[in-house]
Amino acid sequence: MKYFLRIAAVLVALGNWCALMTSGDLSRLASYDWSELLTFFLVPTVLGLAAAEVALRLARKSLEGGFLDRYAAMAATVWIGGMLCGVALAWGGVIHDEALGMAGTVGFGAVASMWGIFCGGVLSLAEGLILGLPLAAVLGPFGKEDR
Amino acid sequence: MRFLIRTGLATGVIVIVLALASVSWREYSARSSCASVGGPAAQIVADGGSAMLVDEALPEYQIGEKHSVFIGAPPERVFESLERDTGDKPPVIKLFELLMIFGDGRASAIFEADKPVLDWLRKGNDSVLEEPNQEVVFVNEDKGTKGTLNFRVDPVEGGSRLTTETRVMFEDQDSCREFGRYWGVMYPGSSLHRFYFLETIKHRVEHGAGTALSPDGRGKHPETTQLGGVA
Fold first, then answer.
1. Cα angle vertex A55, ends A52, A61, to 5°?
2. B65 — contact with chain A (CB < 8 Å)?
3. For B31, phi and psi rounded to 5 degrees?
4. What pTM was computed for the model?
């Protein structure tokens, strides 16, 4: 179960990241250098894993429970991952502004985080409520295997 | 189900804390940025000291932002790509345009569909200062407020540095603080917009002509100097 959840969280995060950053045009990645590619894949992977770990630690019973419990837990996991990715994306412009000092970066970072959670949260909540259905269905047999 | 509800509650608490921090920062930022209005000693002075057109247009300002990106191509090619760029927005920008709901229409929508960004800006601003293949500055003045937006390409080792900078200067405290508060909310979206705009040009230029320069400063693939496939 835990491996399925981690893999699913990473795949959902990577899928969303690709869609948001490249509009699905993966040929764009061909122009990235190795450090950009590493960042491109590492950030959503880490954030997806973080969301999965939160769910594994706080919602293990739900993930092993009935379909409705699994559905709610998966929807919440996608929602958490989306908010984390939203914050990371929103910080992109702030940390690259050369006119901001340390205080400005932290201050505007708070504003960016709020918008990241808001925008990422709205999108990922909707996505989680939809994706939660197939994920919860697939999680059922996995949950029985390695609990 | 409890986990979903707890996630919602935790998100609500975090959003409230961040909202309070954001409002406090917005007010602090507006006040500290505008403290220099009318007092030249405290005004922010542009750094660098190089002969930039934007320094001629607006050397001192209260509110600004600056983004730059290294591009592995000669300045002429970068500027040509900049001239033709229509400012296509990746979905991430559209996502963060949810911010505009909370703005009042003055947001950083500097792009108009299917028209080169610079062409649109040339028509929409009071005056334009240009140095061919190097810098273009758009200047706007309105009731004691003067703002500039520039795009500049500088040759650097191995390629070029494309920079965009926004500067706004006010003559009175009230309008400065009002704009400062607005800026405090809209800034993340605006900076994201500029950042991805530069990144898009970088990838288009480098994807069309390789990523490095030969020692004589020309692209590795000089036959691709024409912008085909770049912009």
1. 135
2. yes
3. -70, -45
4. 0.77
Q: State both tokens at A84.
A: 């984390």
Q: How far apart are CA B183 and CA B175, in angstroms?
A: 12
The residue type found at B218 is R
Taking the C-alpha atoms of residue A104 and residue A101, their distance in angstroms, rounded to an integer, is 5
Residue A107, domain extent: 2-145
Note whether A105 contacts B: Cβ–Cβ < 8 A.
Answer: no
Output the six-digit token pair for A136.
Answer: 């919860």
- DSSP annotation of B25 reads H
Nearest CA in chain A to B203: A31
Residues 42-81 of A with CB under 8 A from B: 55, 58-59, 62, 68-69, 72-73, 75-76, 79-80
Q: For B49-99, what is each residue's pLDDT tens digit?
A: 457 888 888 888 888 888 888 888 888 888 888 888 776 767 777 777 666
Does the interface ipTM go beyond 0.95? no
Domain count, chain A: 1
